Amino acid sequence: MGADPRLTQQSLKVLKVFCEAPRESQAGADLMKATGLSSGTLYPILLRFENCGFLASKWEHGKATKLGRPRRRFYTLTGEGQRVALEALRELGAAGVLLPQVGRS
Amino acid sequence: MTTEVLLLIVSFVLADLHLCLPTIAKFIVRRRASKLPPALGERMREEWIAEIDANPSHLLKLWFALGLFRGIADLIRADREQAAKEASLNVVLRAEQGRLYDGAKARGLSRTSPSPQCQPTWPYRDMPRPSSWASLGSWAG
Questions:
Q1: Contact between residue B24 and residue B62 where contact means Cβ atoms under 8 Å apart
Q2: B49 near A CB under 8 A
Q3: Would you call B50 and A43 a contact, using CB atoms and an 8 Å cutoff?
Q4: What is the per-residue pLDDT across B40-90, written as a single tens digit (0 to 9) for each?
Q5: Distance between CA B22 and CA A92 in Å, rounded?
Q6: pTM of the prediction?
Q7: Distance of CA A49 to CAs A14, A29, B62, B78, Å?
């Protein structure tokens, strides 16, 4: 586990999507749709969160030949990630900061 | 008449180009992933191509690939930071292991020389094994 990454507005958008459905796994494209972030912004955030233990990722179950397409990688929120995310979102809410809007499909 | 022919040709070209968009997107993704460190690049290439294949819209496939022109430097930075953290943690763990071994030796727990199986291994082939674990501990700590 590393030091906590800087929580920018964009990274908070990502955390907020995960907090809305903490047990759900999300693929990169789903997160792009939900947060409105571009792939070039989203993937560094995901990697940093994964490196510091906020997110865990794993490949989709099944073989690519059976699925008929390459396996996707799914990200899930860890317990630590959920704690930090809720704390950050709560602090922002208490400070009256407008939380970033995320659009769920 | 000429305008109609031109429009027809342009529409054919655009239709062909539209069909090529996934190939162009995958080409861009492979090129961008090749800029990353090998292990991360391999993972990201597979992940990004899977995302492109999962997306039904050809334009969105290209949009996904074009977005990657921005984040490569950030990905490299994040990967380097993680590698540095892991390396420093490894040095601290090795030093701690050495301190424990030296402590046990000082308390006389290993009065007789330990068998080769019990001696701590030195994992770095390109670095000489230190004469004393204590020296490694003071260097790292």
A1: yes
A2: yes
A3: no
A4: 999 999 999 999 999 999 999 999 999 999 889 999 999 998 888 888 887
A5: 41
A6: 0.73
A7: 10, 17, 26, 10
